[in-house]
Amino acid sequence: MSRTHDIFLIGNNETLEQAITDQLKEEFQFTHLSSQNLSYELKKHVVELAVVLNTDNESSSDLIQTVLSEFPKAFILYIDNESDFDLLREITRLGVSDYLVFPEEESVFRERIHMLSERLQSSRDRSTENFRRGGGKIFSFYSGQGGTGKSLIGSSFAQALKLESTANVLFIDLNTQYGGAETYLNVSSNRSLIDLLPVIQEINEHHIRNIATSESYSNLDVLISPRDAELAEKIGEDFVVRLLRACKRNYDFIIVDLPTWMEERTYTALSESDRIFYMISLDTAALRILKNVEDLFKQLAINTDEKLELVINFSGRENELTKKDLERFVTYPVAAKLRRDIKGVQAAVNQGAPLRKEAKEKKLTPVSKDIQGWVRSMLK
Ligand SMILES: Nc1ncnc2c1ncn2[C@@H]1O[C@H](COP(=O)(O)OP(=O)(O)OP(=O)(O)O)[C@@H](O)[C@H]1O
Ligand SMILES: [Mg+2]
């Protein structure tokens, strides 16, 4: 039997499952994967054709995203009990091939599955690359040490990424107290992350774009943190997971500025990150702190393999150590080395302006130039 005839049924909905298997059990072989532990279960299979079922208390987009992040080329047919235009739009953007509402469209299901199965066969024959949206990357800026440039460099990195590419970029300040990034980017807004609290269970692109403010030179989208510590307490682990997953569906890059303090939010954002940029200066104190952070990451089971990269900041002649010394002590790759640029940074901060003002600026200050080089090499 050709492997086209394996269909994965994903999600929990007995009525829908019954309706589907009744129609097709003679022709196809079904494997059912529950929404619980889905990422883990998916690792045991090769999914090329999947039917995702509307599942109580689960976001359909999350289920689809989980499948597509593991198998970006899978063909997915989504089935719901009712039609929902916003959802349809969202999952189409994610890369879902087809969408049906049962029982109204039950009669066309068989035909649609056959069509997908044929498309799968021909795409196998051609073995073409099939680019799909929905896999935004989360890069977080972290350090176990305060004042290492997480906010300044993180926000300038996000701005540069926006200026140097056509990607959709979002910067999130997760400091939940005064973070500093707003000053560096010179944005202000009376809307903050806290305004997403009432809609967090069904958060979508609209909500995020409504709350985000835009940095005027680059059009970078920015989500700022509430200034009120009491309100900020309401932003927990669940909020951060839902927010970041929704952002992944709507942006190509999500840059997260984190506090030094290892709280639930920080931990969650680090776990959800595709890459962690750890800001470090070239001195022995910074190395000691990095070692402590490594222990903490181990205790908390935060996986840093192929995720953590060092960003050297405040580089200059007066540094106690060199990059070579650093590389002797740690095995993480160094993503970038950024110069200490007192004049350039101070001038921008004093003017209340971000480090860069346009895509083709004639004279960039040293730190902007270093960030530009880093971003360009990453985009290659
Ligand atoms: N490469 C650099 N050259 C000159 N000044 C810098 C550089 N990087 C950061 N700074 C300055 O260092 C100070 C600390 O930076 P920043 O606020 O970004 O650090 P942080 O790690 O976010 O701090 P916190 O832990 O308080 O959140 C700021 O005054 C900033 O302008
Ligand atoms: Mg900061």
TrEMBL record:
<feature type="domain" description="AAA">
    <location>
        <begin position="137"/>
        <end position="308"/>
    </location>
</feature>
<dbReference type="InterPro" id="IPR027417">
    <property type="entry name" value="P-loop_NTPase"/>
</dbReference>
<dbReference type="InterPro" id="IPR025669">
    <property type="entry name" value="AAA_dom"/>
</dbReference>
<dbReference type="InterPro" id="IPR050625">
    <property type="entry name" value="ParA/MinD_ATPase"/>
</dbReference>
<protein>
    <recommendedName>
        <fullName>AAA domain-containing protein</fullName>
    </recommendedName>
</protein>
<dbReference type="Pfam" id="PF13614">
    <property type="entry name" value="AAA_31"/>
</dbReference>
<dbReference type="InterPro" id="IPR011006">
    <property type="entry name" value="CheY-like_superfamily"/>
</dbReference>
